[in-house]
Amino acid sequence: MENEKITTRPWDAAEHLENEGDMVAYLDAALEDGDPALIIAVLGDIARAKGMTLVAREAGLGRESLYKALSPTGNPEFATILKVVNALGLRLHVQSVPL
User: Fold this and answer.
1) Minimum mean pLDDT range among 61-65, 75-79, 91-95
2) Which long-range CB contacts under 8 A does 39-43 form with residues at least 24 apart?
3) Which of 12, 46, 56, 71 could form a disulfide with 63 if both were Cys (CB 3.0 to 4.6 A apart)?
4) H or E stretch including 84?
5) What is the residue extent of each domain of the chain?
6) Contact at 8 Å (CB) between 49 and 24?
7) Closest to 39 (Cα-Cα) out of 99, 98, 92, 97
8) pLDDT tens readout for residues 11-29
9) For 31-42, how does the pLDDT look when each residue is reduced to its tens digit (9 = 90+)?
């Protein structure tokens, strides 16, 4: 049997966010998890899926600033998060949970 080479590449969530429903479900799951780094990463994935240049323009931010804010080492202010969420055409809402 001949050795076959398998070519792989890193999995990119942005390539699988095909519609708004996918994006909403993805962000909702991240918010439910509660890990701030995960939420920022998910926002970055969604922004890349929609087009980082467009999202940056809608959020009133520079494209490079947006990449930096949503990078694994980024630490965006909450105001920036809200601008990005709004630019993505999404809205955050609060729901009570049993304690």
Assistant:
1) 91-95
2) 39/81, 40/69, 40/70, 40/74, 40/76, 40/81, 41/70, 41/72, 42/13, 43/70, 43/81, 43/84, 43/85, 43/88
3) 56
4) helix 78-87
5) 20-87
6) no
7) 92
8) 999 999 999 999 999 999 9
9) 999 999 999 999
Closest CA to 17 of 91, 81, 90, 92: 90
Q: Report how far residue 59's alpha carbon sits from residue 57's, in angstroms, rounded to the nearest whole number.
A: 5
CA distances from 75 to 29, 39, 87 (A): 20, 11, 18
Residue 8 CB-half CA count within 13 A: 3
Specify burial of residue 90 (Cβ count, 10 A radius: 0-12, 13-18, 19+). Answer: middle
CB-based burial, 49-69: b 16+ in 10 Å, e otherwise: bbebeebbebbebeeeebbeb
Amino acid letter for position 15: E
Q: Tell me the one-letter amino acid at 32.
A: E
